[in-house]
UniProtKB/TrEMBL annotation:
<keyword id="KW-0812">Transmembrane</keyword>
<dbReference type="GO" id="GO:0015031">
    <property type="term" value="P:protein transport"/>
</dbReference>
<dbReference type="Pfam" id="PF03544">
    <property type="entry name" value="TonB_C"/>
</dbReference>
<keyword id="KW-0653">Protein transport</keyword>
<keyword id="KW-0472">Membrane</keyword>
<dbReference type="InterPro" id="IPR037682">
    <property type="entry name" value="TonB_C"/>
</dbReference>
<feature type="region of interest" description="Disordered">
    <location>
        <begin position="29"/>
        <end position="52"/>
    </location>
</feature>
<dbReference type="InterPro" id="IPR006260">
    <property type="entry name" value="TonB/TolA_C"/>
</dbReference>
<keyword id="KW-0997">Cell inner membrane</keyword>
<feature type="domain" description="TonB C-terminal">
    <location>
        <begin position="89"/>
        <end position="180"/>
    </location>
</feature>
<dbReference type="InterPro" id="IPR051045">
    <property type="entry name" value="TonB-dependent_transducer"/>
</dbReference>
<protein>
    <submittedName>
        <fullName>Energy transducer TonB</fullName>
    </submittedName>
</protein>
<feature type="compositionally biased region" description="Basic and acidic residues">
    <location>
        <begin position="29"/>
        <end position="44"/>
    </location>
</feature>
<dbReference type="GO" id="GO:0005886">
    <property type="term" value="C:plasma membrane"/>
</dbReference>
<keyword id="KW-1133">Transmembrane helix</keyword>
<keyword id="KW-0813">Transport</keyword>
<comment type="similarity">
    <text>Belongs to the TonB family.</text>
</comment>
Amino acid sequence: MVTLIEFADRDLDKSPLVKLPDVFMPEAEIRTQRSVEKPEKPQLDDTPPPEVPQQAFDQIDGNATVGQLAAPQEVATNLDLSIGGGLSASDGEYLPIVKVAPRYPRAALSRGLEGEVVLEYTVTRSGTVRDPVVIESTNSVFNSSAIDSASRYKYKPRVENGEPIEVPGVRTRVVFRLQK
């Protein structure tokens, strides 16, 4: 709006205008050709199919045992599914499923610091992490980021006698390295 008001008070520019030449395009017919190759039609075989011999249904023996399979008389059911060490097939140790990478702390990144943090926590019956604690650290600037990362880990819980159990004292090392 300000620009309109500003130009309203000025005089019109009466300098000679530069005229551009007109551009004429010759009329040309544009043809597009599309070549489509059609596959050749396959040749049909005029020979009739072979004749199927007729079955003699009036001479069938109803007591014949052609193609009959005999079922096994006894099936072994004493399978041993133990893995060894007193564990059954459903028992197992806790296994990491998801380990979330830690965020590199901005303060450490700006100073070019690298380090490691050792954490200890409990893997719950549902496979989550509870109570992560810093056991060892090269620099305290990494502690918070390592704890945040570990609290988002997911595990397959330890199973004993078919029931998931908590595993206290699980340790992990979180390494902070700058890419070279």
